[in-house]
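Technical note accompanying the year-one report. For the benefit of new consortium partners, we illustrate the data format agreed upon in the data management plan: each record pairs a sequence with a structure-token string. No post-processing was applied to the example shown here.
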Amino acid sequence: MIFVIGELLVDIFPDYKRIGGAPFNFAYHLKNFGMPVRFLSRIGQDAYGEEILSMLERNQFNASDIQKDPHHPSGQVHVSFDGAGNPEFDIMSDAAFDHIEFEPYHSMTTPLDMVYFGTLIQRERDGFSRVQAFLDSLDSNVPCFYDVNLRQGTRQPKVINHSLKKADIVKLNEEELEYISREIIQAGEETEAAAFSMMARYNIAVLSLTRGHEGSELFLSSHDHFSVSATNVEPIVDTVGAGDAYAAVLALGYLRGWPPEKILSNATMFSASICRIEGAVPENIAFYQHMRNMIEDGSDG
């Protein structure tokens, strides 16, 4: 079982709306790959919350893992695009997902294959302490996937430092690596040296670095380093959620013991396919058929 915790919100684009949030996107992809997934989040008792819950039930998520908050609204983020087509996010503060309760999950009996968490749900002091207490409660053999995903109001060194200490697998982009190297590790090294320094400092087994149109890289604790070029995408509709799609395939490959080259090629292919649709997840699950076929027949896709 892959246990995913984090924000669940409504992405409000200039011309349309989608249910989103990096943890939800990650969980949605893995569920549609055919993997066992539970997703813990919190929504408001409002119209957006009803819409979110209805969609989750249609997609056979466990509704009991979605808490209903009578005092805080469902999360919302307004998405706009800069001149280069890159998304910019204006995220509502003090939303329901900032108040997820973890106590009922501190003594889970379900065997866990992985726990996924990010930074945004730790932006408030209470959220940070709750997430860290939950991670402390896990069996030490459960691998933790930390998707750094620094958004508005989340560049908090204490949060990032403690999260990295809990992580076995880390995904981040070039800007995030540079920030952590400079502000937290205080080394300011070049890319490869910075990645391996972070892994050594925090005992990280796998570090995934995404570099946009320059491709991506995978660093292993064995000091092996792999890279792949970006897939040419035409036409690009938007890039929202491409990193979450990449993270889902990284988790899948890790759990299934894929070689690094296979992880990189399939993560790159799948994240590129997300750039061809509106929003972060497809509305038609037939979108996943190629990945499911590849998983089932064991081919390299």
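Partners are asked to follow this layout when depositing records. The mean pLDDT is 92.
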